[in-house]
Specification:
This protein is mainly α and 447 residues long. Helices cover 78% and strands 0% of the residues.
Amino acid sequence: MSKEIPRNSIWTVIGASSAGTLIEWYDFYIFGSLATIISNQFFPQGDEVVNLLLTLATFATGFVVRPFGALFFGHLGDLIGRKYTFMVTLLIMGTSTTLIGLLPNYQSIGIFAPILLLLLRLLQGLALGGEYGGAATYVAEHSPNNKRGFYTSFIQTTATLGLFVSLGVILATRLTLGEDSFSTWGWRVPFLLSILLVIISVVIRKKLHESPVFQEMKANGKASKSPLRDSFLNPENRRMVIIALLGATAGQGVIWYTGQFYALFYLQTVLKINFVDANYIIAAALFAGTPFFIFFGWLSDKIGRKKIMMTGCLVASISYIPIYKAMAYYAGYNAADPGMPLMEANHVALTILIFIQVLFVTMVYGPIAAFLVELFPTKIRYTSMSLPYHIGNGVFGGVVPLIGTYLVDKTGDILAGLYFPITIAVLTLIVGTLFIKEQKEVDLNSN
């Protein structure tokens, strides 16, 4: 059985891992939070919807490339260690984000602006593809078996907290500089701040030691010489990767991005809630919902990961259409003339409706790190868990805002953007219920 390390040691591990991961998510999500402004900076003036779709497509490339980062850095992490790999990903992410803040716009360098933006976005995606698996595996391999869900749930809060921090920095900058200055050059400030956050995190992470489970495996000569081969050419392990994707992470991914990112775009582009108010609404809902990541991680140690995650997929798929109809009502949406609301928007009601969606997110996301590390043996854990996670989140989840915005624009149906996430959530519910076995409290040292 794995030994429970002293309490102050586990909290040092969690704090250092979470701080770096939060910064990476902050970097990654500034882009999405500023999509409506970036669309005017890096693309030629013209159709606003087309420019927004181009920006969202660039945003989505960062998600789509994440599985490649998962394979590359996961392979390195299983070969040389978890700590060093996620140090490298942190530096790549911070550098790419800072360079976006320095990038000349379309008016200055023409077509090179969106090309360079795309390249930096791809680097961000590669870095994040390696970061999450390393941090989640690192914390899990320090955790006692009966508290793994609770301890890894702190890593799960970092994605939402990263989005929350990005919204907070953006709002503070916007309110300080004013609308005109912010739209012209002030939007760069949140990107440039990244370099300071990265330096702090690197200093903290340098003090960490390698995972004890990984060290023991290396000492016993059980490390994999080819994690990619052992992960995906072994039929049983390949089967588990596919089940993890279709039965857990695909549904988790679409629920995450519907409840947090698509909701933001829906408020701004469909319901015509102004930029500041929409960000306030999302930020308040995220702040209220974040503790539930830890609650459901803790609960998963008691009753299992599967029950909570499948319940989250079920309630989300049933509830999305009524919730988004209610959002339209409380925003005073006028189908005949969207620019002229039928009544003043009820921000409290809208915040509650977003908060409910965040609760769905916490149900599927809070236990997912513990669930994934328990599926795979130590020698290929980083590689094997990272791929389904980043396909589920990067490919299925990352395209939700793009597909949703496109379908609403093409069909004229303001609810059309929900059909894709509902379909994927139902697929995950079916596959997860039929093929996933509960494995809480499995001894990570024994596999």
